[in-house]
Amino acid sequence: MNQPSEIPCYPAIVAAIEVISGKWSYSVISQLCQGAQRFNQLQRSLTGISIKSLTDTLRHLEQRGIVSRKVFPTVPVTVEYSLTESGVAYSEILVRMRDWGVTWGGLSLD
Amino acid sequence: MNQPSEIPCYPAIVAAIEVISGKWSYSVISQLCQGAQRFNQLQRSLTGISIKSLTDTLRHLEQRGIVSRKVFPTVPVTVEYSLTESGVAYSEILVRMRDWGVTWGGLSLD
Fold it and tell me: Which PANTHER family does the record associate with it (chains A, B) (predicted)?
């Protein structure tokens, strides 16, 4: 049992919860766990995501310091997305959430 | 960096995210980290929560196996809420989210 000193403090938790508030946020983070990817690669990997949803999700994660965006001056321009150090730390929370879901939610890893 | 095998699997993560999908869920869980509490105690501790929101949040958490509800046959009836084993495990995720928010969100523990 957690002691009172370990109780979550609200602004910090709210910041963490907001990261995964969008429908696609955790899917994008988990894709980027595999390494940097371009927009089109992400869209292909995330079946069913629209260009608008992917754009919005990447912007949402970039604004929260989870994802970094690197532009290469090719023609046409190439944009690559990757997890920041903060994003990698966050992905560890998602792994713990998955483990909780598997242990307590009666859900398999499939 | 997580390896592909560590990537969150979606149904389990969705189950975990759903736990804190309500505005008051994490507040109620963190209150119950201090031990079992009755409805009125919870309402007093959670400034600004309405009876309906607290009722709905407790039901939401009970349905997901986070909170257990114990009824004592007093007059009037006494109902006590506490974290289940699953709820205690979940509160550890919230502690990690807090720590992430403090480390990466630039938020203090106050």
Answer: TRANSCRIPTIONAL REGULATOR, MARR FAMILY, TRANSCRIPTIONAL REGULATORY PROTEIN
